[in-house]
Design a protein that fits this description.
alpha/beta; Phosphorylase Kinase, domain 1; Rossmann fold; seven-stranded mixed beta sheet; binds ligand MGD; binds iron/sulfur cluster; binds molybdenum atom; iron; MopterinOxRdtase_cofactor_BS; nitrate assimilation; Prok_molybdopt-oxidoreductase
Amino acid sequence: MKTVCTTCPYCGVGCGVIASSDGTIKGDPDHPANFGRLCSKGSALGETIGLEGRLLAPKVLGHDASWDNALDLVATKFSKAIRDYGPDSVAFYGSGQLLTEDYYVANKLMKGYFGSANIDTNSRLCMASSVAGHKRAFGTDTVPGTYEDLEQADLIVLVGSNLAWCHPVLFQRIAAAKAARPNMRVINIDPRITATSDLADLHLQVRADSDVALFNGLLAHLADAGKCDDDYVTRHVNGYTQALDAARQSNASDTGLSDAELQQFYAMWAATEKVVTVYSQGVNQSTSGTDKVNAIINCHLATGRIGKPGMGPFSATGQPNAMGGREVGGLANMLAAHLDIENPDHRDALQAAWNSPTMCTTAGLKAVDLFQACANGQIKALWVMSTNPAVSLPDADGVAEAIRNVPFTVVSDIMARTDTGDLADVLLPAAGWGEKNGTVTNSERRVSRQRAFLPAPGQARPDWQIISGVAQRMGFDGFDYESPEEIFKEYAALTALSQKFAKDLDLTDLADADYDGLGPVQWPVGGTDRFFANGGFFHADGKAKMLPLAAPALETGKFRLNTGRIRDQWHTMTRTGKSAKLGAHLAEPYVEMHPADAATLGVSAAELVRLDQKGIFRVLISENIAAGTLFAPLHWTRQTSSAGTVNSAVNVGTDPFSGQPALKSADVSAEKFGAGWYGFAVSAVPMTPSRPYHAIAKTQTGWQAECAGVKTPTDWELEARNITGMQSGPAATLYDISTGQTRVAIIDDNKIAALFFASPDPVVVARQHAANLIGQEVSSLSALAGRAAADQPDPGPTVCACFQVGANTLRDAIIAGANSVDTLGAKTCAGTNCGSCKPELAAMISQFKLPVAAE
Ligand SMILES: Nc1nc2c(c(=O)[nH]1)N[C@H]1C(S)=C(S)[C@@H](COP(=O)(O)OP(=O)(O)OC[C@H]3O[C@@H](n4cnc5c(=O)[nH]c(N)nc54)[C@H](O)[C@@H]3O)O[C@H]1N2
Ligand SMILES: Nc1nc2c(c(=O)[nH]1)N[C@H]1C(S)=C(S)[C@@H](COP(=O)(O)OP(=O)(O)OC[C@H]3O[C@@H](n4cnc5c(=O)[nH]c(N)nc54)[C@H](O)[C@@H]3O)O[C@H]1N2
Ligand code: SF4
Ligand SMILES: [Mo]
């Protein structure tokens, strides 16, 4: 058995993991990102490393091919496109989930050997506004602070960040710090009330995209209250007066908050020296995203609250290597080592270091434009790596069409079937997490090793090796790498250029370090932990810039659709979807809707809603969302649902500075989906229900499917067989003529192989219990009751993923007196492993706690 210290492949917290080849996963107690903690996704990594669904050999036009044939073909097609149509006729689309070494090699090939910058990444959908905001304010893309600041702060302001679900270990660090120092305060600014709001002393339910107005209002208040640091501003900041003048033009009532709420927020911020403002996609994914970033940074610059312990603006990165990608110049408008593409000296220096034949001279196409160029015929050869754009880009169906329109498309992925892979001419099998070596950089600039503990399956190869193989076949020197270590050392040495041009990034000390034994290390290596406490910005005069910002006009449309993440799934679910534990939390695509809107549309709880004629989602009626707005998760795809790909209904503009799409604000129509029947099925085998509405998920015993259709089937047994994939074996059907409810059990070898429940209304059945019956002996037909027997209480929908504790179990324990998260944990185990469900436990306690009798 092999055991290694490695890094979690999901979010940008970058937790250290101790992983073994038998699938055991533990948090690394010595890693400074998590000190042993893991969230539900990290804890379930062992369930996701199986080979089910993996791409194990190269495929050309759907047929297995040898590596030689596949790589020759890719090299020939790219060479020919460049020869016939020029370097800008080819494009790469990469990912913040590539390792630094993969990312570096792809950029070197594209920018230094093809001579085009048409290489962009999903970081355009994620961090681009933060990058643009940092560059405007600081002169370079620097995150000034560290995770410790979040523990040392007296006030944490979360803006457009559902930290409890998206950066759970950081959230837990804050929660622990707050428990230890009860005077610490947390403010959450989000148009939705979320699990994160549970920790907040103040939740500001702002109008969407009113963040610039809010922070402009704060800046004016800080000036009026005499809280600006004149000395810091004079010595280190340009643009104060203009920024303040512009801020005074803004109208804080745009936020929709009451005066009392605004004054409370301003007063708390003004009164607290140690304040950290953490922001994420509610800020970045907006047509005013870059301005939002600068509106936040303006307030920190004006007060000098930056770069000192417990204070500063903090952009939480999404993906495990969002930060590393930025360091190696992963975006179409950047060069490696934080060098600028517009600067000829930077370009020349990089070309000299690479000793490369050519160099791109201008920025390339940004993600949305890149796929537009695919649609209009400019792109003749496209290579997509470690991302699923046919799901994750806005106008996902248009993007799929655009990819189809490219004469030659290569997709490198670990999975045989993804919505993007299905469109490829060539599929290349990549080695996945646990099978390859390299480095990633987390949100606090800490470089950590990923280490292999499993053999690469089938013919899978690490991405750097695949890219290098094509480069060599195209006749380029400079790609004869034998290992990721060689690549890392070349890149680390190259960051000397960043120093030469007075930039921030310096990894040169790592160029001679022991790569195998490299522990987590923060940059600047051996320097200070934080930037800018005493100025030292990276604009030519060494000063920072405050920006004069106008708040955008806020539109009122039909419904405003906000999108984002849920606790237990990662993006397009290609990995987390393999875990039954993770699937049990929220198992189908849903749309959150205010009760008033539900009443207007005539939809009741658990019915279905159609968005923009394209998507169909289960309605979740909730007071946590404002009337006129909707929220839907981004995770479901055409593989896991019939119509749950939310980006099919998301058609949005981009930020003018960063090119980041406004994924939080699609204008959509919504109507009730008139289902004639609803169904729920569990089966021992994977299902492809192909019904107008369906969504599948993994269970402990096989698979489950939610479905619905318009026309009620006449033969329910046939319907059950078609949906569950169980064509043979005896079936028992129960039909209740008074309610129209139907139950079908299909038996194989005297064991229950599939169960199907249908009803004219949303199906009420103990789903977890039904799933657990699969594979059981058929002692009686009581299985068809669809509810648990008295001696086997139904735990209800899963809340705690680690211990599979359901909502009913928790409700009963709360009613029996468990009235704190800790006692509930002691009684049921819920929340005692990763702790990701603690906000939900707290919410349930306030819902079900019996009122204490007056004494
Ligand atoms: N479980 C899980 N965790 C993840 C991921 C995942 O897929 N699953 N993905 C990772 C990645 S790549 C990323 S980028 C991060 C994202 O992490 P987050 O940004 O925290 O997550 P989101 O759910 O995208 O959006 C955050 C919040 O922005 C709010 N919001 C929307 N519009 C506005 C607005 O105008 N103003 C304000 N103030 N708020 C607004 C939304 O209501 C939402 O609650 O998560 C990372 N972590
Ligand atoms: N509506 C809406 N859309 C969004 C967002 C939103 O908030 N709302 N958020 C956006 C953001 S912030 C992000 S980051 C994107 C994420 O969106 P994507 O990047 O498209 O989503 P993933 O599912 O993470 O895709 C990663 C792919 O890489 C594959 N893979 C895993 N490991 C490896 C490997 O080692 N090598 C290779 N070659 N492949 C691998 C996986 O199987 C998967 O197919 O979504 C964006 N889209
Ligand atoms: S918080 Fe969770 S998903 Fe993020 S790195 Fe840590 S364990 Fe992984
Ligand atoms: Mo992201």
